[in-house]
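User: I'm new to structure prediction. If I give you an amino acid sequence, what do you actually give back? Let's try with this one:
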Amino acid sequence: MVEQVVEQPEASAFIRPDPAGTPSRWSRLRRIPGLVLGEQLGGGPPLGRLPEPAVMDASDQVEAFDRAMAAVRPLYRRVARQVSALVPRGGTVLDLGCGSGHLLEELLALRPDCLAIAVDLSSAMLARTHARLTAAGLCDRCLFLREDMTIPLPIRPEAVVSMFAAHHLPDAVLLRRFLAALAGYAAEGAAVVLWDLARPRQAGSIPAFREAFHPGCPPCFARDVEHSLRAAWSRAEVQAACRAAGLAARVACPLVVPLVPLWWSVVLPATRGRDLTSCRFFGR
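Assistant: Good question. You get back a string of structure tokens that encode the predicted 3D arrangement of the chain. For your 284 residues, that looks like this:
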């Protein structure tokens, strides 16, 4: 199976300017050197993993998450283009752990020929995704399912994507089950694209990360950021889980911030015999 390595863009590409009254884009970028130094030179013990709740259903959490993730909308746009380049014309994309629908809005707007299936355990997140896609005029091309993303669905999508969802899995057993489900979709010929947070090496990196990417966020989301970073899987943990699950993939760490692997990713092109050249232009 051929692996595609993710491009490594500059950090500024993932930070959108904020409304008046919040720190400027430049002032936020200036916080990144401190994050780099803290990760590279911090002398404390390595940060251990601390699981967080698997489902985010509280209305204030969902609202805060939806608003805050708009700050990294350029990253959603980049991943949507990445997925688009792997999906044939008229294909179906399965989004596991769809959250509030930022990725699906980008993808369906980019690819008017494609369909999508949004899966999440949170009914509140699914409702927010439905509302987002309805407002954008894209809802008629998406099916919404409240399902466990670790359990394979009886469908054959052309691509499976999951973004900022794997860290919600409570333990390594469920991580392997999730990756085994992805291996099953890949065995049927689907492309697979995964992105998630990587756990920082040092606890002190968490506030620096939050201030660089989500300054001025509500207290409930600030807590969620800390919980998510502590619950995130390291690259080595994901790589070991991929091997155990039979997912033939190398886990990459796109260096969005030089020297600090804040994210990990897995990208596997489709194995079905399809000519993708006719739809490559959608990913540009």
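You can read the tokens as a compact description of the fold. Here is one thing that stands out. The chain has one domain: 11-41+49-273.
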